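Good morning C.,

I know you're traveling, so I'll keep this short. The sequence:
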Amino acid sequence: MIQSMDTESSERILHELEETEDLLDVSDEAPVIKLVNLILFQAVKERASDIHIEPFQKELIVRYRIDGILYQRLSPPKRYQSAIVSRLKVMAKLDIAEKRLPQDGRIPIKIADKDIDIRVSIIPTTFGERVVLRLLDKSSILLGLEEIGLSPAQLHTVDDLIHRSNGILFVTGPTGSGKTTTLYAALSRINSPDKNIITIEDPVEYQLWGIGQIQVNPKIGLTFAQGLRSVLRHDPDVILVGEVRDTETAEIAIQAALTGHLVFSTLHTNDAASAATRLLDMGVEPFLVASVVRAIVAQRLVRVICPECKEGYPPNGEALREIGISSFQLEGGVVYRGRGCPACSETGYRGRSGIYEMLIVSDAIRHLIMEKADSTSICRQAVEEGMKTLREDGAQKVIAGLTTLEEVVRVTQE
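The tokens, ready to paste straight into the viewer:
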């Protein structure tokens, strides 16, 4: 277990490193172990999701990804680079002698009473090995559908979709946009003793009680498609396919939905309408896509303004126009931002919330899919039928004082 550390101790550890001269003893030196512990502890304290340890020609930089943004936090002496990487390799049970090939491993660890699962990825670069650590807090409670940022109307829509007996619900967005969290929240909502729910994931991020979870393993031939075929023999009611990456997986998922299963999955597209055209591009027949896809939800994560240092200010008219807000929609004529305080590490933000675009597949949209219409036409039809775009949903969160104008522009620009 890694004990708590403060800024004073981080300075002391870096000072001790400066004093250590005998490089043969470096990997056994307590300061290197303390420094790695400090890096891990600090990351958990600041709620970081990833730690990047990056070597350059004359320096070593440690950056944390907090609420989706990278911040530089430490710059240990360059000569301790290999010792730090070796220490992490020892912790992850990797080969410390192999420095030319990428390596992946994991470190289960306890930090300040939290069980943290750390995924380790090491790649060789020109100036040495580069390490990225992904931190998964196993003790963190999974969010419910009410807590992920859905408006009451959106929550009602999702609730209706996930209680249907068949069809496919796709959640789309780039890596790190919260798709898995949304699908886990949906599964938790419908999980009950009378339902058989099975998931196929890469990787299984959190254990869900009462749900069978399969980890794909391409090395032994257990792909999404192969796993999905086997799952169908297990009499499931609901299936979660981590991601539709190829035509084979898409076709089996669609067949599963046609034969009376409810299927949840994700796709990597920028908006909801593009997901329908992506399936057609994969070679799936238009009539199959039109008949089984019930809805496509696109999402992004916006940083939430820190409640401790939140302040109102009169906004720039041009910034408002950019995301489609008129000044009379603002209460008191102000929008909000975070000033920056110790609680949010001077960033002005603390935590994240989702913004959503929900495309419900109506008869008109089905007709467009059958005709292989482009995503612009599908999007236009959905907006006519009342779909809010990502930017419009973001604008509502700005008006509600949840996030900033800059944040919505940042995550919704194409």
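Safe travels,
E.
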